[in-house]
Amino acid sequence: MALDPQSGVAQTLLASALLGRVVGGMSDSASSDLARAEGLVDQTLAASPRYSDAHVIKGHVLRAQNRWQEAMPEYEAALMLNRNLVEALSGLGFCKLYAGSIEEVIALEEQAIRLSPRDPNTGFWYFLIGIVHLLQSRTDEAILWFEKARSAIPAVAVFRNGLTSAYALRGETERAVAELAEARRLSSDDRFSSIARQKTFAGGWWGVPKIRALYEATYFAGLRKAGVPEE
Q1: Based on the domain organization, do 40 and 84 belong to the same domain?
Q2: CATH of the domain at 44
């Protein structure tokens, strides 16, 4: 950037790094980092509107700000330019879920998996498919996908939390308690300590009202069955 302030590649990579710092919980000022990332990628797209990677990063930044409806056109623009961009497919799936189009999510994630079956992010795609099954009360299917996510990336705490809920809903309390303990061990903070703490995570935003209602009836109901306290 110092050598070439107008470099779209450098601007996009720096925006991605700033985003990664926020998502990874390493930012001292998440709002500032996200605002800077958005500004950088906007500069790139103003000069190079057909730069698909910049559209993907813009979508990721908007997602991190819970601006799901605004993020979707960015992912769709990236896919118009390159239909094989698995990051765009996956990101669009997450946005579809929280914006309320739950019935469209699984097909997007399955397409990403077909295109890149050995991708290091497949665990997150498996997990999202599991979440959709869980929210729609298909608990057995949810467990299969959560277990695949856990096997793909064992160190991700939220995968264990999903299994906590699903196992408890199926009446497997011991397995649920074991996964909850592992989620708490793997987490760098106390987000899995209570229902209230989990609900405030990510700004307390769990989607449009119908999606929040599904989470309450399934995901959080399972956590309560596993013994997670309200406060």
Answers
A1: yes
A2: 1.25.40.10
Q: Based on the structure, what is the number of domains in the chain? A: 2
Residue 162 burial (C-beta neighbours within 10 Å; 0-12, 13-18, 19+): buried
Is residue 203 predicted with pLDDT exceeding 70? no
Q: Is 98 exposed, middle or buried (0-12, 13-18, 19+ CB in 10 A)?
A: buried
pLDDT digits (tens, 9 = 90+) for 97-131: 999 999 999 999 999 999 999 999 999 999 999 99
Residue 24 in tokens: 């990874």
The contacts of residue 71 (CB under 8 Å, 6+ apart) are 58, 59, 60, 62, 63, 91, 95
Give, rounded to a whole angstrom, the gap between the first and last alpha carbons of the chain. 46
In this structure, the answer to whether residues 99 and 29 fall within a common structural domain is: yes
Domain span at residue 102 reads: 1-119
pTM for this model (two decimals): 0.93
Q: With contact defined as beta carbons under 8 Å apart, do 57 and 37 qualify? A: yes
Quick one: pLDDT band at residue 202, thresholds 50, 70, 90? low
* Share above pLDDT 90 across residues of the chain, in percent, rounded to a whole number: 93
What's the whole-number average pLDDT of the chain? 96
Amino acid letter for position 74: E
Structure token pair of residue 127:
């997990």
Radius of gyration of the chain measured on its C-alpha atoms: 18
